[in-house]
Structure prediction request, 494 residues.
Amino acid sequence: MKTLVNNKFVKYLIISLIFILLVYYPVFQFLDFIPLYKWDESRLAINAFEMHRNGNWIVTYFEGNPDMWSTKPPLMIWIQVFFIKLLGVNDLAIRLPSALAAFSVCLLLFLGAIKYLKSHILGFIWVLLLLTSNAFIGHHISRTGDYDTLLVLMSFCYVFSWYFFIERNNIKFIYLTFLFLTLAVLTKGVAGLFFTPTLFIWMLLNNKTLSVLKNKNIFIGFAGFLSIVLGYYFLRESYNPGFLKAVYVNELGGRFSGNIEGHHEGFWFFFDQLKEKRLTNWFTIIPFGLLIGWFHVDGRIRAISKYTSLAIIQYLLIISISQTKLEWYDAPLFPLIAITNGFGVFFVYEILKNTKIFNDYLKFNFIPLVFLYFIFQLPYREVHAKTFKPNRDVREDGLYDICYFMKDAAQGKRNIDNFCICYNGYQSQNIFYLDWLKEKNINIEKREIEQIKENDLIFVNQKDVIGQIDRLFENMVVDSLRTVKVIKIGKMKY
Prediction:
């Protein structure tokens, strides 16, 4: 008996280590190697830094003023502030919440396969399909400090909490559904509600409408959801008048029914993106996965396959009819597509495992494992290569070079105390690194061209700004890094 327990422990230890290693490399390795992205990621980072400094947990700030451009609730920012306080102001504190959310989604897929369908192999298949689905590991999702991976996690949790409530009629799943629905809305506002039609449709398809409406816990959970969500929005409005109007413009009247910032695409945009760019490794096997899942002999697999199909179609329809379209809006679909495709891959694995000819002639039937290695090794190597010491896209023409320069200074690799920075236009990625330097008590001033004076040490990388300095001042380049130049300002030329 003791030997049996020890063998079981060793088996689960090995399985756990394999899972951790498979997820670690795509999700966590070199997570803070490249600077924060311009726009959303660095703007959230500035919100988190200012919340860390000013202690206002209700209103998010950008450069000292309430942020009315990014009007999402602050759950993601709260978590980033927690990691700033734990790890200090740096890129890792900003990105770790997303990476941990991605890890959690993988863990839920893995444990779900083991606990519900009694197969760790299916768990590995689901996880590998998710990790190698092109877009899940990359910009704006699992490796950047944006809202989307946390939204993926919370949406996934409330969608499947409801599934298990309908299946088992267990009250705890009602409260889990409303808990994660609340957290989804507190992550990304109205986008957190995008899967809710699936919950209603699945209830109707399973003839559970009357029993659900008679369950008082549904109303308690819904009341709790409304109290927390509306409570936050009205509290923010009381501290920051005009916030609700900004939410309407950014998320409802503007983003959904209108076009924001020129991000207008056709109805088939997301479908085409999945096919041509974001799911290229696995897009073609979706029909096979659907076929196997819908007609599988195991009733649990049939039910899950139909439920995930409904959720995928319903969510895709909502984001497709929205007038504002950005490619990462499809992020919550990836775990569901991994489940769908996983049934197809697992079906082939099971056939190879149970094929009589292999079992009769081989002491150990390694053919199913060879099959899995064959289909996953190249996509996994690609995602590993993408995350091993990643580089910025060369087409960005030095946009982030000045961030590398300031990051080196924040990490003590160069001394730029009492230097000045000069740049034109919106540069949120630069502002975060200036904030990081301030936290380190390194004095850096932002100067406009007309504020520059003799003997200033200016670091700059925009060609137009360098040209203006050349025209106005005698100057000398005293240091450089990539496109960044450190310029000692001399006398004015005229």
Remarks:
- The chain has a mean pLDDT of 91.
